[in-house]
Amino acid sequence: MPALRKGGVGARIAYYRSVMRPKLTQEQLAAAANVSLGTIRKIERGERGVSDPTLEAIADALGIDPARLLTDRGSAHTRVHEAMPALSAAIATYDLPEDGPIRPIHELRQAVNEAARWRLAAQYTRIARRLPELLAELARAFHTASTEQRAELAGLLVLAYRSADAVAYKFGAHDLSARLIELMRWAALEADDPLLSASVAYVRTETFFAARAHTAGLRALEHALDAAPAITPSETASRGALHMRAAVIAGRLPDASAAGTHLGEARRLAERVPEDVYCGTAFGPDSVRIHEVSVAVSLGGDHVGQALTLASEWKPPHDLPAERRSGFYIELGRAQLWSGLADDAFESLKVARHIAPQHTREHPWVREDAGTLRRLKRADAENLTNFAEWCAAT
Fold first, then answer.
1. 181 with 236, same domain?
2. Over the Cα atoms of the chain, what is R_g?
3. Last residue of a domain, which of 57, 72, 87?
4. What is residue 342's predicted lDDT score, i.e. its pLDDT?
């Protein structure tokens, strides 16, 4: 449904256009978004609504997440939940997809890679809207493919399921997430690719996090590590990512010894590869540093000071995926809150929101910590209340 609020979406578009460096004129924005100048003018004046495709095109031209243009705090959240039934239907018919068009495999590859970029940028609304049709199309392609293309299409299904799972898991649909992960495991076997299998093992940890089955989750990761080689750069990064994940879940146990061992292995492997995204997961020296903070916060107690020390010496660079950078500031904010640094904690949460609004809003720690901050910092009631309402703080 088109968004129409006088002084709302249009005012935000005008604001972001004015703060661009260099500043964009309405005509330049219209050209970049491939919409008419008259449309831009009417939207900014609040005289017409904005369809989802137009909103996304304008956001792309401005280089921002479409969620930043939605003044209604519930808009992005509602749109994702409205898309959940279509996502469920697409995976329910994975083995019996309905008839329909199938694009050439190179176009399907491009679409899957685009969805992966949205996931890394925490643009969940886009994924929720686009993935159901893509999953159905990939299923049709897989079940009608020649023997030569079947393995590659299975691999594309794994990556597409992973993007869909990011939405399901972040928005609390854990049963749907678990189903998507089982489909990832099935498709990875069809692809017969050890790197994809390792990637699935990494994502599967979400199921153990949701169930608080941390011992079983650590055991599953260590089993995956037994089968993960580390010869090529991609293999090295894949194995390193599994060690990062194992360190975090060990921290949740909490098992400081196991967490330290896995972090040490992740650091060693990170020295052998540049920071990059490997098979859908960011890995390298910077990613390991972020996980060092995460593990320290998970361990709690005396380890929280270590998180603050690490964060005082280093901040994640801008070329890391937005989801990972925002996660760093969310976890830093929790460490600061536990250390009695309420003002610093609130600043960290605001930085996380600026980097990845949807990821920050849906993170359970943000809701918990914003609620705690609101109770502690009554003097800053307006700013904190606005933030707490935005993330539906507990």
1. no
2. 22
3. 72
4. 93
